[in-house]
Design goal:
Strand content: 15-25%
Largest sheet: 4 strands, antiparallel
Structural class: alpha+beta
Radius of gyration: 25 Å
Number of helices: 12
Distance between the termini: 19 Å
Shape: globular
Strand order of the largest sheet: 5-4-6-7
Number of strands: 10
Length: 382
């Protein structure tokens, strides 16, 4: 039963975050008048399809992923879709039986391309199309967070201290009731979880705070926290304070949802920074197996935990795709920026070479992360 739950939850999460990403590309491409040859949910063999205004809408057998095939885009999916939309170019001029293609109910007018090739669109429109996928991932995260905040029975957690426990070390070293925490260790706190995350990253249970006290910004260096040990001898931090709740008005819910997306983005950037600085080991990276395992665990706790993990994954996908790496949307935007500044496109051979090399690197990293996932499963560390 747990395997079935994990499978269904993983399909739901992956399908949601990838489908919304591809829908972003699709929506902006249509808006800019670029020909979309196919918009597919899922990968592999086509289960059903419909052609409308020159675009084939498909549902495919493998319920993970999806893609948008744009006219003039250099990708396997786009080339296959172009061949389908222009069969005479693919088979030397013969016209295949339309019934065999599964779209006999579609009129020739519906099959006719309704837009221009991607490479004929202005540079700024192509850049918008590339950025739209990540943008929709952030929108999905925002909407899901708004749903989660609305559904929770508790009020929104604020960053204003309601009470500091008597004799608590944090009170003795600076914090006071009524303080609004603005930043911890120089990093701005958007939501209450930012405070907890930054405190978890401290190595000596000491942190520098910036608070708003009596309308003035106050710096509190070296605030210390009490600690306690569990039965296993592991040391944990004791906060020593409580915070006010915030009434769940529509405006407060939307504000908290937006700040929560920023919080998850902060986590991802901090994790990347820690990895590059050596604070985290590359052996801690998780691949598809680790992500599916985490999804299964979240699903076992309830739908709220599953949706919260979905927010983290969709924001992660959005940020990852914006990295200036040739195989990603961010890398394509870099090429377009160069074209916009110089007036000349980066030669296709250079773009293709860099993209293939980047894909190889990413694929190797995924294999390494998957190996770590399997090793952790075998050793019980996951």
């Amino acid at each position: 039963m747990s395997f079935i739950v994990t499978f269904i939850a993983a399909v739901f999460v992956f399908s949601a975050v990838i489908a919304i990403h591809e829908f972003g590309h699709f929506m902006v491409a249509k808006f800019c008048g670029v020909q979309v040859n196919e918009f597919s949910i899922g990968m592999g063999p086509v289960l059903c399809k419909r052609v409308r205004k020159g675009t084939q809408y498909s549902i495919r057998a493998l319920p993970v992923g999806g893609f948008v095939a744009l006219e003039g885009e250099e990708s396997p999916e786009s080339r296959q879709a172009e061949e389908r939309s222009n069969p005479s170019a693919a088979d030397g001029g013969s016209s295949p039986d339309r019934g065999a293609r599964g779209i006999a109910e579609t009129s020739p007018e519906e099959e006719k391309p309704a837009g221009i090739p991607l490479n004929e669109a202005p540079v700024w429109q192509r850049a918008l199309i590339m950025l739209a996928g990540a943008g929709m991932n952030f929108v999905l995260g925002f909407v899901v967070m708004a749903i989660l905040i609305t559904a929770q029975s508790e009020p929104i957690t604020s960053k204003v201290l309601y009470q500091v426990e008597e004799n608590a070390l944090c009170g003795q070293t600076g914090l006071q009731a009524g303080d609004k925490i603005l930043a911890v260790n120089g990093r701005r706190c958007f939501v209450a979880n930012d405070i907890l995350y930054e405190l978890m990253r401290t190595e000596d249970y000491t942190a520098d705070f910036t608070v708003l006290r009596d309308g003035k910004k106050v710096e509190l260096p070296g605030v210390q926290f009490d600690t306690w040990q569990d039965d296993k001898g592991e040391t944990h931090m004791s906060l020593g304070f409580t915070v006010y709740g915030i009434k769940k008005t529509p405006l407060n819910v939307l504000k908290e949802a937006g700040n929560s997306v920023l919080y998850y983005g902060r986590i991802i950037f901090a994790s990347l920074s820690d990895l590059l600085r050596g604070r985290e080991s590359i052996n801690d990276l998780s691949g598809p197996v680790g992500i599916v395992t985490a999804i299964g665990q979240a699903a076992s706790y309830g739908w709220q935990d599953l949706l919260e993990l979905l927010v983290l994954i969709t924001v992660n996908l959005g940020i990852f795709n914006l990295l200036p790496f040739p195989a990603l949307d961010g890398g394509k935007v870099v090429f377009l920026l160069i074209e916009g500044v110089t007036g000349h496109a980066v030669p296709e051979k250079i773009q293709s070479g860099l993209t293939v090399a980047a894909f190889a690197l990413l694929f190797g990293l995924m294999i390494f992360a998957t190996y770590n996932d399997i090793l952790r499963l075998i050793t019980g560390a996951m």
